[in-house]
Amino acid sequence: MGIRLGIPQVGGPPPDGGLIDSYGRRATDMRLSLTDKCNLRCTYCMPAEGLDWLQKNQVLTRAEIVRLVGIGVSRLGIRELRLTGGEPLVRADLIDIIADIRDQHPELPISLTTNGLGLDKKAQRLKDAGLTRINVSMDSLHPDTFAQLTRRPFLDRVLRGIEAADAVGLGLVKINAVLMRGINDHEAPDLLEWAVSRGFELRFIEQMPLDADHGWTREGMITAGEIRELLATNFTLTPDPRNRDGAPAERWEVRRSTAPDVVVGVVGIIASVTEPFCADCRRTRVTAEGKIMSCLFSREETDLRDLLRSGANDEAVAQRWQEAMWAKPKAHGMDHTGLGAADFVQPDRSMSAIGG
Ligand SMILES: Nc1nc2c(ncn2[C@@H]2O[C@H](COP(=O)(O)OP(=O)(O)OP(=O)(O)O)[C@@H](O)[C@H]2O)c(=O)[nH]1
Ligand SMILES: C[S@@+](CC[C@H](N)C(=O)[O-])C[C@H]1O[C@@H](n2cnc3c(N)ncnc32)[C@H](O)[C@@H]1O
Ligand code: SF4
Ligand code: SF4
């Protein structure tokens, strides 16, 4: 699919224009990484031995996070917040951060993307603090395959976390699964059956070149087209009539082949590589150390942390954020789509260090 954006405007962002970029897109979805640390080592994300973690004083504090969210919401038109990482549940003050943000923004949708480890013990407190809903990543229902993909034998703990999130009302629970050729791709129909029979919404995600090991290849990845074919063995998919509204996932209504009249659920397919959705991108990212990344594949980053710590007022912080977003690339960190194209350069950061 091509991209339908025109030529970029010259000049800079209009002062009262929110987080608009030079192609006319407006970011209203803030994705904030709370930590670069993680307790799994998914092969498509992290190296086996982990990364050099940020020092504590390099990471945004609870107060800085709350202030940044406040600036985003009250001055820049942010309408939803996604907390991510690294693994956000490893951050000791996560519940307090959510409670503080909720206190200041009673209506703001706040969601969390997590690997689910420890979620069974924290789900109720997350809900009570004001978390709206949750996405849990789980790529396989088989302990050995799960361990092969995440390099840790923790499937049972993730399943307990998912169950707890659902039980305390953090739904609609969405499950994220990256399919890897020859490892878990054959599991696609089973994963979907498992999800729809529990009332969860599954998202299949195309693997992107954001792994620390730089092992991604365009030929090796499982495409959205292949995912739809894999699912067709057991299911019929028809487009979900709801507006996509800038979301990464293209949603499909799911019917079992054995009962073609009954919609049993919805599945989302996130085709960042083969069917990119950059033309309608509404996302602004803040890394754990307070850098704005206007695009997941940006090679330019704009620091807000030192500005926050220098005593700058909210207006100055908002202005720098706006300037960073004005320079957002057209697509995939470039002026055209093409993950894996000859001129594509993989960012230095892996997914865990950006915030997925
Ligand atoms: N290329 C690209 N991929 C993205 C972007 N945002 C999310 N993704 C991919 O989509 C995956 C799932 O993101 P989530 O935020 O967990 O899920 P989502 O589909 O946005 O979920 P909901 O907002 O909860 O419906 C991420 O892990 C990325 O792989 C983006 O801005 N660009
Ligand atoms: C970086 S993780 C951060 C949150 C949490 N640790 C988790 O795994 O859900 C967010 C999402 O990014 C996805 N992800 C990581 N690396 C990816 C890659 N190379 N391509 C596509 N998705 C990726 C993960 O599957 C996960 O759903
Ligand atoms: S995908 Fe999430 S759980 Fe897996 S290594 Fe990356 S940050 Fe950790
Ligand atoms: S690759 Fe960049 S422009 Fe495209 S959807 Fe993702 S963040 Fe937005």
UniProtKB/TrEMBL annotation:
Record's keyword annotation contains Isomerase: no
Family annotation (Gene3D superfamilies): Aldolase class I
Cofactor note: Binds 2 [4Fe-4S] clusters. Binds 1 [4Fe-4S] cluster coordinated with 3 cysteines and an exchangeable S-adenosyl-L-methionine and 1 [4Fe-4S] cluster coordinated with 3 cysteines and the GTP-derived substrate.
Domain Radical SAM core: 22-248
Record-listed S-adenosyl-L-methionine binding positions: Y44, G86, S137, M208
Binding site for [4Fe-4S] cluster 2: C278, C281, C295
Binding annotation for GTP: R31, R82, T113, K174, R283, T284, R285
Keyword S-adenosyl-L-methionine: yes
Assembly notes: Monomer and homodimer.
Annotated function: Catalyzes the cyclization of GTP to (8S)-3',8-cyclo-7,8-dihydroguanosine 5'-triphosphate.
Name the record gives this protein: GTP 3',8-cyclase
Annotated organism of origin: Arthrobacter pigmenti
Gene: moaA
